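Input set for joint prediction.
Command: fold jointly, output tokens.
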Amino acid sequence: MKFFIRTCVSCFFFAVFVSSSIMAETLEEEFKIEGIISLASIKALQSELPKKLDLKIIDLDLKKTNSGWPVLRVQYNSDLITKDKIEAVIGEIEDPAGHFYKVHNGPLVANAELSEEEIQVMSVMGDVVGFSEVKNPTIDFETSVKRGEESFKKNCAKCHGLNGNGYGVVAHGFTTWPKQLWVWNGADSGADGYLFWILENGKSDMPPWGLVMSEEERWDLINYIKTIKKPEGI
Amino acid sequence: MAKEIKPPRIRISRRIKKDKVIKVKVKFNHPSFTGLAMADDTSEPVFNRVRPVTFIRNMLVYYGEDLVSRLRIASGIADNPLFVFKLKATKEADIKVVFIDNFGKKWEASKKVKFKG
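tokens >
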């Protein structure tokens, strides 16, 4: 009988041990890191974090990132550590330059909505003056769109992307992502003047193309932009 | 903790005559940062985001009730910029300068134009 009870008890503890070891999941998590300003910053974070927490750094990649923020990938035991704890510890680590790292949780770019005062001012002077009076003078749209496509590939695709998705090769370097151009697809003639104004004067990080392109070239581009369609699956 | 940003300061001449052009200086201690840095310049230049972008987005200038100027500013602006511009002193009224940054925060300062002599 004693043997039977001992066996049962040991079986029970063994089962608890096995189940707990199964429940202890190994998770992988990605963190966008603020504050990496040099190669030394990367090394410092890679060496300090495993000292403070029992986790494994899989990768800290600067190049394979869609958001522009460096991505830290870690593997950890969910029984021992939580995601919040990792975030907190990252925030305590000091960079060699003397500032602290931070996990980026906010939006990609902080650009608040325009205030009422700004909108009112812009209606008086600046962004939208007289654009509605500008009319599209194009007669042969087909030829114009072809010329516009060539011009787009040459001048615009680096920032706006070849398909107009706003993820051009140099777009990571901007403070705001370039516009996804398919929003203008099929826009009526009312948008022409506005697009012409933006092309001529620039907007956000986009330079004023009125200094470089002739009026005809700008209208070609506008005609082409209005034909760009949103690719399927995006 | 980040330092609190103080309102801008305006300086104008004390001897202003009617219809003369005066110089207005506006100093605003506001940080400016594109948010980007070159993290790896050894093998291949890699720009990445370092911290959220911060810059003054708009500067509005009022003379009395009238809006006389608006500057649209981007992230390339210097830290703690000094703006100097000329203005024709047509009336005794306040010059008000409003700054709005990319987070939508607003600061303003004003200075009274008084005629002398």
